[in-house]
Amino acid sequence: MELVREPKNGSNDSSPHMSKREISNKAVQEPVTAKKRTRVPRGTPTKAALQRAAAAEARTRKQTRRRDWERRCKEKRWIPNPRYTQPRGTRVMHHAAAQRYFRLTRTELGRLPYIELFNKHHEVAPPGKSYEYARLFRLVHYKFASLAGLPKNAAFVARGKALFDAYAATLDARRVKLNKKARSPET
Predict the structure, then answer these.
(1) Cα 172 from chain centroid?
(2) What span, in angstroms and rounded, lies between the C-alpha atoms of 73 and 56?
(3) What's the pTM value of the predicted model, to 2 decimals?
(4) Cys-Cys link to 145, which of 33, 155, 174, 185 (CB 3.0-4.6 A)?
(5) How far, in Å, CA of 169 to CA of 154, rounded?
(6) Per-domain residue ranges of the chain
(7) Which residue has the higher pLDDT, 154 or 141?
């Protein structure tokens, strides 16, 4: 007597009494579906991808640091519109306050700070701002240039000391002249 094992779910699918033809027909009738893939939602990287990214970052961390540093330096160095950018670290005043301040305390050219004398930002004021003291600087320059017997545009040449020396020499010459006049017995 043949022992026939019953399938677990009660169907006769794997019956040993089925012929090969019947089995093949059944296979044709019911196509076997492929194993369902587990779908990874977009935006969440797999573990392997995360590891790869971490390794790549570790490799290039030094380079990116340098790149970032260079980029930051470039951003600092390159001012997109210098006409509207104030020089940093200097005392900038506008309109009447500037006029008062420079008329009172900055009458001598030697006391004017170099950056404010020769900075192009002060030449052209943005709309709504007026650099009155830029005009004052110019006038002071012209005055000293004329006293030193130099042409007017010499005021804008950044010679600094040469200009002051020339002015001092003229003052000395005048003083000598005045002293001579005072000492001379004719007067």
Answers:
(1) 50
(2) 25
(3) 0.18
(4) 155
(5) 16
(6) 49-78, 95-183
(7) 141
